[in-house]
Amino acid sequence: MMDKYAKGSTTRLVQSFDGGPLKGFTDAVTYDDALFVDAMLAQGSADDIARAKVVGNAFLYVQKYDTAGDGRLRASYAPRPLRKPSDVIARDDTSDVGNMAWVGQALVQLYAKSSDVSYLNSALAIGTWLQNNTYDTRGAGGYTGGYTSRGTKIEWKSTEHNIDVYAFFTMLATESGDTAWSERAAWAEQFVAAMWDANDGRFYVGTLDDGKTPNKPFKPEDVNSWSYLAFQNPAWAAAPSWDVTNLAVSKDGFSGVSFCSGDRSGVWFEGTSHLADALELRNASGDDRQAQQYIGDVAYAQIHGLNADGLGVIAASKNGLSDCDGDKYYASLHVGATAWYILAVRQGNPFLLAKL
Question: CB–CB of 73/59 below 8 Å?
């Protein structure tokens, strides 16, 4: 996927999807490309690290030549080689907090691996933009969702985004030596704590637009597995188990978990992999067995799934699997799902420094 449009050291991002219903969708989604960097660092060969740096350099390039010029990155770009500023084409202009936090994490990981200060400086610019533009004092605090492609402020707050911000800012504190980032990370953690539903043993997805009221009906997988990977908090250790129990899918020969409780008609392979990763880390009784089962489920889909090529991992076992929030997943090969599979197999934790 990285070499579809250029090879070698040419600065470029990686197209997120290929084949199936998304064969015409050629965006390089920044979240997926951040995961690409994490997966390459987890594999760790000289070639893998070189590839991670190429994508890291692409992040620096699109940040430098963004039309706003204020440190942000957009949700997705055209995956064309980046040889001149006009090659930077934002396909989705959304200033998405989660995507930016993931890019920031990947850049700090690259800095820790390479000691190239340009990666740290880029990450600091992203962190500063997040702090200046999405810090929120309503309710339990935390950080809002960012800005829409039209520049409208997103007023709701996402638990998942605040998990990402916590991990990112904690990394910045470690690598920059500036303790202000630790205080900012704690602000994100405070919000995450307020979204914990002790009765159900799971996290609410976030708030409504008022920034205070929990969004209770929407029950996705990722917030529960990512919370354990990021915090390893014993008080929240039941969260991955909620996913195992409530999102289980075994249908049409494929098994794993769905994206959300509202549609269990197919398997979401990205989530199945990061749930496996969380279970490996938690390592309670039965966790490793369940994690290895999930990894085996993804490996089966890698070979036998619709539109499979034996290399990448498809996003979902069927076309049109709902995310319970208006979007759908398809049986198209997906860089993000493939990267999370690599991380699960390697027991790599992208939320922690030096754990890739």
Answer: yes
